[in-house]
Amino acid sequence: MAIVVPLLVLAAGVFAAAVLVLLIIRNIISSSNKRSQHGNKARRPPSPPKLPILGNLHQVGKYPHRTFPALAKLYGGPDLMLLHFGSRPVLVVSTSKAAREVMKTNDLISADRPDLKTAKKLLYDNKDIANARYGEHWRQARRLCVLHLLSNKKIQSCHALREEEIGLLVNRIRASAQTGQEVNLSALLPCFTNDVICRMALGRKYDGNTVFRDLLAELMELVVTLSVGEFIPQLSWLQRDSPDDFHLDGDGIKAVILDMFIGGTDTTSTLLEWAMSELMKHPRVMKKLQEEVRREVGGTMILTNAWGIGRDPADWGVSPDEFQPERFLQAKVDFKGQDFQLIPFGAGRRCCPGISFGLAVVEVALANLVRDFDWKLPGGMRGEDLDMSECVGLTARRDLPLLTIPTIVSARRPT
Ligand code: HEM
Fold this sequence. Notes:
The chain has helices spanning 4-18, 30-37, 57-60, 64-74, 96-105, 107-110, 117-122, 136-148, 152-157, 159-178, 185-202, 212-222, 228-231, 250-264, 266-281, 283-296, 306-309, 313-316, 327-331, 355-372, and strands at 23-28, 80-85, 88-93, 183-184, 300-305, 373-376, 403-408. By secondary structure, the chain is of the alpha+beta class. A hairpin with a 2-residue loop joins β2 (80-85) and β3 (88-93). α15 (266-281) runs parallel beside α20. Mean pLDDT is 80; it is low at 1-21, 30-40 and 222-231. It binds protoporphyrin IX containing FE (HEM).
């Protein structure tokens, strides 16, 4: 992938300015137990006053990632703040210093996940990876996935598949551009990432405008049998015994496959969506990138507020909210979990195993989009007027769809 190099600059910038998965949720059991056993109240982080039954839920609001820094300023310490969601204590981590302490120094303690009833129901008693308690099942299921699905070898072997899907995406946009039609990137991008993950994980995709929910229903039917490898050979990796005799049962297979969709589709398309939004809002950066690409072508629950940390003036100086990808050229910040001031993929033992896979999709897709098209907003809207509000969910997607008017500038095939 010759195109990747210049985009690394952009990728880092995009992650910081637009970032996605905001609240990394973990469980911390032993440390809080120890603390209460020793009655060490002096070390309890500051906490806003709470209501009976509700705790602090009434203060969390619609956008917790935005409310937490404000609450921390009012009631908490800058690093840590203790809230209560109902009766459940929730430790909010607000700075890179505290995130390092929790996710690196105390990684073993914080690697667990909260036992939430809804997730348990949806994910087969948490037999997946992302919601599994820290232990043997999580270790083995993650190892299996990393080895067979998300390894560099697998990523390389999926090269043609990615190229094909990116080609289809570009062609769809090209067809609209030819007739001057508006393109709703917020609708197109999730279909694209869905198709990529589907082909990667299941070996085929489901053509037509399949709504994600329908696809998942079909997926459930497909993987319902224990002999899944007999019907979908591409899934046989899930049933292969490991040297130490670990193998996933039927529910485990469904849960891990679901994880690939939950962890891999929305995150990747949301990242692309915000990247395009920021670029359209900042034509100077868009132009610079286009020039570059075109020239190149080739226990207690813990909530780490990755969104707030990525915008903390203590780490990022003045105007941390501004989209300035160039700042990463000087800062040389690692975004894969080593430097805690920027943790879009989390950090420590539970950090995202799909980083390379996600980046391989995002970088090449974005490079093709900005290389092959010039982009305008409909109705003569100026970039600076583009609404950048987010909504809440697993990923913080755009609240309003990203509607665009592309113009074709190149007829080259994706690279
Ligand atoms: C490119 C966009 C992506 C972003 C921004 C992202 C972000 C994250 C984050 C923040 C976490 C939680 C880390 C923590 O707790 O410290 C995570 C976990 C996870 N991600 Fe990703 N991810 C992306 C792509 C993917 C892809 C493509 C896959 C798989 C196909 C994937 C699969 C997973 C899984 C299975 C976990 C749970 C890991 C565990 O609990 O051990 N992600 N991701």
